[in-house]
Every structure is written in structure tokens, then in C-alpha cells.
Amino acid sequence: MTKKCLATFFEQLEIPEPHANLESGGGTQAEQTANIMVRFESELLENPTDLVLVVGDVTSTMACAITAQKLHTKVAHVEAGIRSNDWSMPEEINRLVTDAITNYFFTTSEIANENLLINGVKEEQIYYVGNTMIDTLLKNRTRFRKPEIWDQIGLKEKEYIVMTLHRPANVDEEHKLKELLDEIIHHSNDLPLVFPVHPRTAKILENLGVNHPRLHMIEPQGYLEFNYLVERAKAVVTDSGGITEETTVMGVPCMTLRDNTERPETITEGTNELIGTNPKAIKPAMDKLFSGNWKHGKIPYLWDGKTSERIIEYVLSF
């Protein structure tokens, strides 16, 4: 995430400025991990604490957990137990390492609980609290902002599709990305396609020369603008994990262009379908959508906007 995007994110979600910023972005996975560990160690030595709370599955999650345990500080992991079982994803390695050295596990689903138990975590260490991302979504839902593209191209509710693509399996090979886009364009029933383009995808698209009157490639959107688009879309086509959680809560059909997911509850309970990375899978999914046969889904247990409160209660009890 660029500094500009980070600033927008903090501003829109009304997050206060952090007391300390490790400023460890950039470089390889190993360089990032090393930089975070060195700087977080200095922070912990200067400001000792009883507990380090790490969130999600990014590099800093793993690096800070390791650093804390080396300094004999207990670790609590928010979104523990999530698994894709795909070791080619850096996030999966981060999850595995973090959960191997965590003391308290805050989980989003029964599936995550089961993953931890299989890995030998004791039941009394697991706290099923729900999903903090949904706390953010529900808190800000009334604040969603209409983006400029809405009026520029005359979008109407449930009469357009939102797209996001950024994973290497979909965008790193030019011919694969072009085939995906061609299939989506061809089978989207003449609806506008709104495509906020991820920076890594933008570089590849420059070489492809993809152009179609219904394909609207726009700058990455702020949280409030992007979710305004998602909430009102006919459907979302994505390879993001987090978006599948948000579409599930907002009841929006979601097609995930991946061969695996770390959020299976969005499929078993929600509005998401895992259709894989084969471009030929897009037509059957679109046919299902436009025939009115897409599942309605339901909101998973404890995805109610009160997860953070439950976490605080448990932390205080520790």
C-alpha cells in the first residue's frame, strides 16, 4: 500500500495516527521481515508490554509475533486459524508461522477453530470472536461515498459488475489476463464493468492494449467509494479474499477467480463461489448469475459488528 493510499485509508476510517511507525515497506519478503523485526524489537525494548496483538496474515503479523516471543512477550493473533493450504502464497506461510508461536487465538469461524485443533492448539486457547473486517464494514456502511465514476458513466444499481484482479496466477502472464478479461467482457450481458486497477495489474495492462467501451479501468478507490460500488453491484468478480467477506455480508453475488480460498465460510454460507483461474469457467458462472439462480447466502455467526468488543473483553481478562 502506497503512502497516499495509507493516508486515505486512515482518514476515511477515522483511524488515529499510530504512536510509532516502523516504516519497513519495500524490498523482498526477507528484507521486509528483517527490517520489521529489527525495528519492532527496538520498540518493544523501549516500551515493554504484557501482550502483543497481531492481526491478519501480512509480513508484519509474522515478524512481530516472532520478535515478541523472542523477548518473552505473549502473542494474541486476530484472524487465527485461517488456511488456504497453498504454500505458494506468502500469506499462508505467515499464517502458519504466526499460529505456531501464538498464545491466544481469536478466530472468525468454526472452520478456523478446527484448523487450529488439528494443528495441536488447545481448545482453551481458542476464542471464537467473529470478524473484525465486518466491524469496519458495518460501522462505515452508512458513510459509503458515491465515487466520480458513478455519474461519469451513468451507473445504475444492480446494472453493472465490479472487478478486481491482482494475484500473480491471474495477472502475471499477459495472455492469461487478456483471456480472463475477454471472457468477462463477452459473457457479462452488456453490463458496464468497473475495474479499479491494482498497481501490479496496471503495469501488465499497459502492454496488452485492452480496450472495450464497457470496460472502465479506473484508479484504486478509497474504502468508502469502493464499497459504495460493491454494495450496489449486480455482482463482483475478484481474486481478493477480503472482498468475499464483504460481499457475503452485503448479499452481493461474488465470483472468485482462485483455485483455493482461506475463507471457505463465504462459500458454504455466503454469496461467494470459487470458480478457479481457468477463463472458461467464467461463462457458466455468468449464466448462473443472469438466470437468477445465484445463491442468496447468509451472514456467518458472530459477523455482527461486535467482534472488537469481544476481543477487548478477552484481552482484559488475560
CATH architecture label of the largest domain: 3-Layer(aba) Sandwich
Name the assembly state. Answer: single chain
Number of domains: 2
In percent terms, what proportion of residues is strand?
A: 5-15%
Strand order of the largest sheet: 7-6-5-8-9-10
CATH topology of the largest domain: Rossmann fold
Structural class by helix and strand composition: alpha/beta
- Tell me the span between the first and last alpha carbons: 33 Å
CATH class of the largest domain, anyone?
Alpha Beta
Number of strands: 10
Integer-rounded radius of gyration? 20 Å
Unreliable parts = none
Order of helices and strands: HHEHEHEHEHHEHHEHEHEHEHEHH
What would your notes on this structure say?
With 318 residues, this protein is α/β, with parallel strands linked by helices. It contains 15 helices and ten strands. The chain has helices spanning 3-12, 29-46, 59-70, 90-100, 110-118, 132-140, 148-152, 168-171, 174-186, 199-208, 223-232, 241-250, 265-268, 282-290, 307-317, and strands at 51-55, 74-78, 104-107, 126-128, 161-164, 193-196, 215-218, 235-238, 254-256, 272-274. Strands 7-6-5-8-9-10 form a six-stranded parallel sheet, with helices on both faces. It has a four-stranded parallel sheet with strand order 1-2-3-4, with helices on one face. Strand 9, helix 13 and strand 10 (272-274) form a beta-alpha-beta unit. The longest helix has 18 residues, at 29-46. It starts with a helix and ends with a helix.
